[in-house]
Prior knowledge:
Belongs to the cysteine synthase/cystathionine beta-synthase family. Cds1 subfamily. By secondary structure, the chain is of the alpha/beta class. It has helices spanning 4-11, 21-48, 81-94, 111-123, 137-145, 159-170, 177-184, 193-200, 220-231, 248-254, 292-306, 312-331, 355-361, 366-378; strands at 54-57, 65-71, 104-107, 127-132, 149-153, 173-174, 211-215, 237-243, 286-290, 335-341. The chain is built from 14 helices and ten strands. The protein has a six-stranded mixed sheet, with helices on both faces. The protein has a four-stranded parallel sheet with strand order 5-4-3-6, with helices on both faces. The longest helix has 28 residues, at 21-48.
Amino acid sequence: xxxxxxxxxxxxxxxxxxxxxxxxxxxxxxxxxxxxxxxxxxxxxxxxxxxxxxxxxxxxxxxxxxxxxxxxxxxxxxxxxxxxxxxxxxxxxxxxxxxxxxxxxxxxxxxxxxxxxxxxxxxxxxxxxxxxxxxxxxxxxxxxxxxxxxxxxxxxxxxxxxxxxxxxxxxxxxxxxxxxxxxxxxxxxxxxxxxxxxxxxxxxxxxxxxxxxxxxxxxxxxxxxxxxxxxxxxxxxxxxxxxxxxxxxxxxxxxxxxxxxxxxxxxxxxxxxxxxxxxxxxxxxxxxxxxxxxxxxxxxxxxxxxxxxxxxxxxxxxxxxxxxxxxxxxxxxxxxxxxxxxxxxxxxxxxxxxxxxxxxxxxxxxxxxxxxxxxxxxxxxxxxx
Length: 385
């Protein structure tokens, strides 16, 4: 598979023509003017945006434990991926990879593509999302609403090669979130998600969380949070929750970066059939493998607890966070735990909130629902789970 740099060079302008230096100078000046304006627009979007909320999940007061969800669904494009898309566009622009009039191509199961379509429209370049045919209709609608075009594949494992080929064919730029997510974001601060969490916790009774739980699609969010924690010398531990049909857990436990699996994740936005380059296993402290039925049970429990629907990836993280809370209760420890509300549930009404879809997938959420109810009622996690 070609790299973004190779994709860009396939359609990039060649070096200056000594016979036409005046035209080249004029074109270069026009490009630099376009680049400055594009970067200004992306940065202005961030400047207009308020921070996302930190919501409390209700737990019994006597436990002495606070559970929070960082609500990333309130970004203008509705998900955690808005931060990533902004960083990737700034990275691509400042590296000279994104050029006026040339398309940006991305391999995505949906939410990243929605956010990137927004930024592509903001700076006036075409956008093509390469995605599985099973992507939720609502995400497809949102990508097209923001001016993007959807290119479907039947096998999610072919998204990478298809995206790279489209970049070559069109002279565009393959953004490649799975490679560049961890390096495009400034993990030392600059209003990244980790810095935001700690700032919002400053006046809470446990301002330094005991655990932060993230989920992995690219691995960029967990890398950003973990690096920030180490850089700032916090004692917080980082857990990554991984769904079924994903390789991050197996790769982390075995130390094998080449591990793969044969089918795609049912939890949109997270879980990958290979260990992605942006996943940084050495930066995190713990991983949990979460059954898909448990992820669905958790998002439904979240709606019952705070009245908010969320996507399946939120449920994967929340399930792991609740297990950590149970461990803290059992050990008599106090403190805070933070996980992420990644995107809104209205994108998945025909999936995670549909009993018909659950039956078709063979998913029984009842045992996992009972486990959550038992924990919240007694403080004890059922031993079978």
